[in-house]
């Protein structure tokens, strides 16, 4: 199939079957595309929609985002995961306002220099937001191109990754670039799926090497498996007489960076020492069964300790980093922490 025939086939399919009514596709601007692309990294469309809509109500443009505190941004992001994305959005917004007159840059190089924006995200912002010809290579597009060209191996391998970028650049048309890139993402998300792809309705199946050789189940190859390390800790759910919960603010970098969370301890000895310093009766804490939360790179096994105190004493750490708070929409808690707090509220 010629390059023009490939893009034409994809665009004809998009006109008939492509997604055109997602919230970020309405009143499309580079800013709205940017926010949606960051939210959609590692996250399903259905999950992103309500977060995107709330985010747009509160931060309607880059100036509003730049002027907000990181706490406000994190609070609206809470539950979406991968919190470095929110921190990078906030940092990038301030750079855009300070150095680019509150306008997103119009080149791949300038966009890629901003925190949290890589080559593919920059291409999506330019093409979808401004209809500038720019190629993309997200997970869905990688899968489509691997199967179409019969590229074996893991797409994250440096050599294969470079080959895929060359192919993406070659196939991206100079016309209707926004529709084409959206079509490629939709094709991967709805037709050329990871498992049991719907090859019979694919617009490029006539020349798809993986389909013609019946290898769609092995192309592309998955990421080489590695043993996930396990981290263990105790997590304290402590309420005072008014029902507020003792929370600590996590460092801005690392897991759950910048969020309020429950105190964590590596051992029961650490729990005992903390309770002594905080004037908490350790014997009143109820120990619940161990739970597991899985991150992208490790498992967290934690034992919840639940208790109440009549004291509002917070003697450890800076006051700005530990408080008695009532979890609500203004306090960003990690999803598993919020779930634990809600389940132990009775």
TrEMBL record:
Its EC number is 3.2.2.31. It catalyses: Hydrolyzes free adenine bases from 7,8-dihydro-8-oxoguanine:adenine mismatched double-stranded DNA, leaving an apurinic site. InterPro entries: A/G_AdeGlyc_MutY, DNA_glycosylase, Endonuclease-III-like_CS2, Endonuclease3_FeS-loop_motif, HhH-GPD_domain, HhH_base_excis_C, HhH_motif, MIG/MutY. Keywords: 4Fe-4S, DNA damage, DNA repair, Glycosidase, Hydrolase, Iron, Iron-sulfur, Metal-binding. It holds the Pfam family HHH. GO terms for biological process: base-excision repair; mismatch repair. Residues 39-190 form the HhH-GPD domain. Gene3D superfamilies: Helix-hairpin-Helix base-excision DNA repair enzymes (C-terminal), Hypothetical protein, domain 2, Nucleoside Triphosphate Pyrophosphohydrolase. One of its GO terms (molecular function) is purine-specific mismatch base pair DNA N-glycosylase activity. Belongs to the Nth/MutY family. This is Adenine DNA glycosylase.
